[in-house]
């Protein structure tokens, strides 16, 4: 075997790959399957080189024609240069013309791991330009490109009769298969300067069938370089009762490496066309995006009984913007804007089903021992019957917390200062400020009991006016200035016991808590943030079981319960249950039905069962202490594998709460979803949400105990590089022009192209 080193004036020996590395595309009737040629071996056994312009080689025979100045290497020729490796049956280099001719089972691997195979290649001696015949490239990321003929000149590579796919060409048994999708084209041009790939007379095939012919199109070459990212994305197609046929074709515009804009025209058969846009930007401080849509058309008010006589016309639009900036190691600035011109726009155009749109601006400072937030927010209501003038505007909302170590008794002290101003254009205005301190000391007794001592104090001051405009009387408070002081103390004891059971380990932890707080002024204080009170396992042992600051649970009580955890291989069970008893007999402000209005509370708990990765069930409950009726029953279950599974959710609130308290209305609903894999890549999926609320749960309910909210079913094909799905969805919302109806959707996603 001959060995040696030849000095070249040029780049690494990798033009075979360069000819089509960026040209992710392919030729009609070209073979994308593996070639019966092994890729070049590593550089072991080749002479070492000291410079990038040197080529190490090995061959069975080496001949030099002095007369014509031609070097010929033959018989398992192997070469290496600057990280690229080549093998061929024969390599001929004409030093006079500068032509290098490689033939016979040519294969080359570039430094990036891409492998190119060809029958014959003719190159310049600087290895930058050349011609390749019967080319196959296997990219490092798994993509493949085949072409009958390829030419590279400078930064322009042209491929004739080419084919491209990013998909696997072998099945799990190693047998050849048709790729999920591929593009064939008469000609493909890769522009290395613009980092873009252009197709001429292209055909896109999906699952072996040609589905689209295009005279020409282009897309970025995947190098993520500036200037190569603009172009059309895959279209979206839907048919709905509200809009008719909806065809949208997004256009993506890369403005800079850190900024882009996507513009999406929408054409509908039942309403006027619309234009949607999304702008995104990233800089050294953070990122933000702005999305919006505008159209012109008729609209109905957000009313169940709206008729054509209520219709008017005008501009309809929405904006949804958000962003976060990191202003140094401690400060963060974040915000969002969500607004629409009318209440039914986002629902009708299937943008969002949220019933409230929140806009906010917040500045936060966080370090190892303190937290500061200065914020403001605004809410636009989308609910039927809500008065926008009753929605609060918070400006400002300030919260500061400082954690320090207790130098006298040990433990931790947390100081807090809070201020909130709520303004309504047609309702009650409220301002609040308070300062508080909390001390916690955790100890461990000799018997293994975990004991926590807590002391809490707070001073509040409130101001409110136009209180009579608040629709719920118990939330109003007394108009003018009001103040109050809050003091509380608590002792919490947990005593864990650990043992074995049925081949696993268990932990049983009884828990007892004693809380004492003198009588507190509550009803004269406006209630803005503590309205949705309900006893559950998450707040059973809380110092204050109201959700916010405006209401405080005074009096003395003892809370008791237990936690039980069990674990063994593939099995995990967690359970908690408890109850409280009020030691004082004074009347409570907690309304009947919350589980806390009597001296003995209802019994609440949670049980979670997990079996491997196949089953996970969680149930939360509240049981009436008097008659053991279930006042709250909430079940969430996941059954199955990642390919075939069922999701089950059920909620029933049967608390018999006064219907005038709008935040505590009872309801019942069931949520079902699932997916069944019917073949390796084919699945059927579906979901439904049904409102089961009847007169027994809510006397003011408009439903009869069975009212579907939405339903969806579809079929999808999904592998590593193709997702194709068809779905049907039906919504039952009767509000305004966001009317009930069906929507049919076709979804297509191709790896490396479009979205």
UniProtKB/TrEMBL annotation:
Pfam families reported for this sequence: LptD (PF04453)
Principal subcellular localization: membrane
Entries under InterPro entries matching the protein: LipoPS_assembly_LptD, LptD, LptD_C
Domain LptD C-terminal residues, every copy: 315-682
Keywords, alphabetical: Cell outer membrane, Membrane, Signal
Subcellular localization(s) per the UniProt record: Cell outer membrane
Signal sequence bounds: 1-29
Function statement: Involved in the assembly of lipopolysaccharide (LPS) at the surface of the outer membrane.
PANTHER family according to UniProt: LPS-ASSEMBLY PROTEIN, LPS-ASSEMBLY PROTEIN LPTD
Family: Belongs to the LptD family.
Subunit structure: Component of the lipopolysaccharide transport and assembly complex.
Protein name in the entry: LPS-assembly protein LptD
Organism (species): Sphingomonas natans
UniProt lineage: Bacteria, Pseudomonadati, Pseudomonadota, Alphaproteobacteria, Sphingomonadales
Name of the gene this protein is made from: lptD
